[in-house]
């Protein structure tokens, strides 16, 4: 691949219109710090074929010239705050070689109890905080027990 083709694929993956805009972006600055993000966007993203995009906006790539188990990868839509729980179950199966069905071309049967996959809130301000937690606004009654008082008979 020529250098101009490589830069074109890099800009396509990053969503920027010019190389100057990419080098001056926060995304590039984060890539200097986050090695996983830099590797996926700079090296793997442009070298693979785009297979599809899920409803969270994540892009899935495949390159069959790489070694086995490193042929498929995801470039997350939110590059600053990416979360692995944003990968839907059908794409998870494809990424981890559980199945070879491309979710954009195959309709999976869904169990009647299945709900749409969502990004978990663990580690954020919206996570579950039980009563007594520092971040829960609802205060807890810290009494260990309350003595039983029988009704008074007249």
What fraction of residues sit in β-strands? Answer: 5-15%
> Looking across the biggest beta sheet, what order are the strands in?
1-2-3
Low-confidence spans: pLDDT under 50, at least 5 residues? none
Tally of helical segments: 5
- How big is the Rg? 24 Å
- Run of helices and strands: HHHHEEEH
Taken from the alpha-carbon principal axes, the silhouette is: elongated
Helix fraction bin: 25-40%
Structural class: alpha+beta
The overall strand count is: 3
Give the distance, in angstroms, between the N- and C-terminal Cα atoms: 96 Å
How would you characterize the largest beta sheet? 3 strands, antiparallel
> What's the rounded overall pLDDT mean?
77
Short description:
By secondary structure, the protein is an alpha+beta fold. It has helices at residues 3-14, 19-23, 26-33, 35-47, 89-95, and strands spanning 49-53, 59-62, 72-75. Strands 1-2-3 form a three-stranded antiparallel β-sheet, with helices on both faces.
Report on the structure:
- This protein has 154 residues and is of the alpha+beta class.
- Helix content is 29%, strand content 8%.
- It contains five helices and three strands.
- It has helices at 3-14, 19-23, 26-33, 35-47, 89-95, and strands at residues 49-53, 59-62, 72-75.
- It has a three-stranded antiparallel sheet, with helices on both faces.
- The longest helix is centred in the first third of the chain and has 13 residues, at 35-47.
